[in-house]
């Protein structure tokens, strides 16, 4: 049984890499034949070399901690800076959206009070807040956190409201019948019942936060992956631009995989869960 | 007299006008009685049960519980309800579902544990205590739901077509289990069903209700000894008699359905 699963996994893995490998080979051939200017599109091998350089420390190891030296490369610093902003901004946005969403979902009067404002603010893309963010917070991390938290806020808010409003009435009736007071009802019935929606909102929110962090870094800060690829453009380092883009892609993928496994764990009770 | 239902009316407003779901219901149910409410869809049997449970109070009239005239004003753990759709909390394990009501009652952890374990054993659910409801069969889910209500020690158990979604064999097993529990814990049970056979198999007393407006059509006391043999002559004589009563109402229901097309 275990053997069969492994062979299936290998087959699926092989199928998954066919297209990327073909694309890489075509790209490499294109570059080697000199069909395009390497400044416009460098060979994948050149991108890989650059990525390695970007990853590793610039000066050779001399003394002190080997690990400290190993992680002193530019890429890891940039990735850490970007990730720090995503997590910080996301937490600010989500922690503001969650209680408001729970209140708006449970109370019709609070919903009516806040809904018009939410409906007007929601369609404004977080990017449109950039001028205001710089005006209010200057440069550096504060405007980045502000922009990212806006990106995370609305998906979490909307899904939390929808989640609470969609709680099946049968659970509320059962809980009332078992003697639950309002607080117990909220904490042990409404919250967990709305959790699939809330987590879906958080997953979208993290995705938005990741898009916003790159844009914010291009404008308001001078480190991070977004800043680095814009800087590389000034020097016409197209290999570094592409290396940075792939790093962004893999980091985003990593975040999504992490969110998904958190989802699957928290919602292990849930029927028809997305097992991807 | 444990439950005293007096002049209970229930009206609903629907887009087409007003529906009288219950019209002047008067019933007295003694402690320890097993009562079945029987009738076709739309006869108000579930409406009456929901009124007793306190989910949907009557438009007029009173439902007294244990001498308290407003005893059914709100839902409460003195009237434990078992729903057709089980209504287990899917995010809680079997043991957590049964424990939920005990935690609300602020039982000590030790007392709650003991009670949960004894109920798990009684219902042959001990091995499944850490499973989530989605991993249980329909019969097992309904056993958990019954155990969850029993944990409350409520004198009254309200059951809304609890076995309606189960296959015939599982259904019979659960009926027998329910009768054992009723005998052991001496609960008062009000059991809604549209199965004539089920009502005769279980009840001390079968209340046949009329189709819209819901009224008490017949109040039949059964004295057949238990366990009841569904193939006996007495059982079938009763079944014939009650079928006639219920089918009259079913015809009225079918006619109304047809007219509304």
Q: Explain this structure to me?
A:
The complex is a heterodimer of chains A (276) and B (261). Chain A has 276 residues and is mainly α. Chain A is 78% helix and 0% strand. In chain A, helix 4 packs parallel to helix 7 and helix 4 runs antiparallel to helix 9. Helices cover 38% and strands 24% of the residues of chain B. Chain B contains 7 helices and 9 strands. Chain B has helices spanning 45-53, 94-104, 109-122, 138-150, 168-185, 196-202, 233-259; strands spanning 3-14, 17-29, 34-38, 60-65, 79-82, 156-160, 188-193, 205-209, 216-221. In chain B, helix 2 (94-104) packs parallel to helix 4 (138-150). The interface between A and B is medium-sized, with 21 and 26 residues.
How many strands appear in the DSSP assignment of chain A? 0
The Cα radius of gyration of chain B reads 19 Å
| Tally of individual domains of chain A | 2
Strand order of the largest sheet of chain B: 5-6-7-3-8-9
H/E element sequence of chain B: EEEHEEHHHEHEHEEH
Q: Layout of SSEs?
A:
The complex is a heterodimer of chains A (276) and B (261).
Chain A: H1 2-32, H2 44-55, H3 66-70, H4 74-106, H5 108-121, H6 130-137, H7 141-165, H8 169-177, H9 182-219, H10 225-234, H11 238-266
Chain B: E1 3-14, E2 17-29, E3 34-38, H1 45-53, E4 60-65, E5 79-82, H2 94-104, H3 109-122, H4 138-150, E6 156-160, H5 168-185, E7 188-193, H6 196-202, E8 205-209, E9 216-221, H7 233-259
Parallel strand pairs in B: 3-7, 3-8, 5-6, 6-7
Antiparallel strand pairs in B: 1-2, 1-4, 8-9
């Amino acid at each position: 049984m275990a053997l069969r699963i492994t062979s299936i996994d290998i087959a699926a893995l092989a199928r998954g890499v066919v297209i990327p490998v073909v694309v890489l080979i075509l790209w490499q051939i294109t570059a080697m034949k000199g069909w395009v200017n390497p400044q416009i599109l460098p060979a994948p091998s050149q991108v890989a070399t650059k990525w390695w350089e970007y990853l590793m420390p610039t000066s050779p190891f001399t003394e002190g901690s080997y690990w400290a030296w190993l992680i002193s490369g530019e890429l890891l610093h940039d990735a850490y800076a970007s990730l720090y902003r995503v997590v910080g901004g996301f937490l600010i946005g989500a922690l503001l959206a969650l209680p408001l969403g729970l209140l708006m979902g449970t109370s019709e009067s609070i919903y009516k009070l806040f809904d018009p404002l939410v409906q007007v603010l929601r369609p404004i893309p977080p990017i449109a807040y950039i001028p205001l963010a710089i005006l209010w917070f200057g440069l550096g991390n504060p405007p980045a956190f502000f922009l990212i938290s806006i990106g995370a806020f609305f998906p979490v808010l909307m899904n939390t409201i929808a989640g609470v409003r969609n709680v099946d009435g049968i659970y509320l009736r059962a809980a009332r019948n078992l003697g639950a007071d309002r607080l117990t009802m909220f904490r042990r019935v409404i919250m967990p019942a709305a959790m699939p929606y809330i987590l879906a909102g958080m997953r979208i929110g993290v995705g938005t936060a990741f898009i916003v962090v790159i844009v914010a870094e291009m404008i308001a800060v001078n480190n991070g992956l977004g800043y680095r690829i814009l800087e590389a453009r000034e020097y016409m380092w197209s290999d570094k631009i592409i290396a940075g883009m792939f790093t962004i892609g893999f980091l985003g993928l990593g975040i999504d995989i992490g969110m998904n496994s958190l989802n699957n764990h928290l919602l292990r009770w849930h029927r028809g869960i997305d097992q991807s | 007299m444990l439950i005293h239902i007096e002049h209970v009316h229930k009206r609903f407003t629907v887009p087409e006008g007003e529906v009288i779901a219950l019209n002047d219901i008067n019933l007295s149910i003694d402690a320890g009685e097993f009562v079945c409410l029987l009738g076709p869809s739309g006869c108000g049997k579930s409406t009456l049960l929901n009124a007793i449970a306190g989910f949907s109070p009557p438009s007029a009239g009173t439902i007294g519980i244990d001498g308290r005239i407003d005893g059914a004003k709100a839902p409460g753990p003195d009237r434990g309800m078992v729903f057709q759709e089980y209504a287990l909390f899917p995010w809680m394990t079997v043991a957590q579902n049964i424990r939920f009501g005990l935690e609300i009652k602020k039982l000590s952890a030790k007392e709650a544990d003991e009670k949960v374990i004894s109920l798990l054993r009684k219902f042959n659910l001990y091995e499944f205590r850490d499973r989530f409801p989605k991993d249980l069969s329909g019969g097992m889910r309904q056993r958990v739901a019954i155990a969850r209500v029993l944990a409350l020690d409520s004198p009254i158990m309200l059951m809304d077509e609890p076995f309606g979604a189960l296959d015939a064999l599982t259904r019979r097993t659960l009926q027998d289990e329910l009768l054992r529990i009723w005998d052991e814990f001496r609960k008062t049970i009000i059991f809604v069903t549209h199965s004539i056979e089920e009502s005769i198999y279980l009840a001390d007393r079968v209340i046949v209700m009329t189709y819209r407006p819901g009224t008490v059509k017949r109040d039949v006391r059964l004295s057949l000894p238990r366990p009841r043999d569904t193939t006996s002559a007495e059982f079938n004589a009763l079944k014939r008699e009650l079928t006639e009563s219920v089918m009259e109402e079913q015809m009225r229901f079918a006619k109304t359905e047809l007219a509304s097309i």
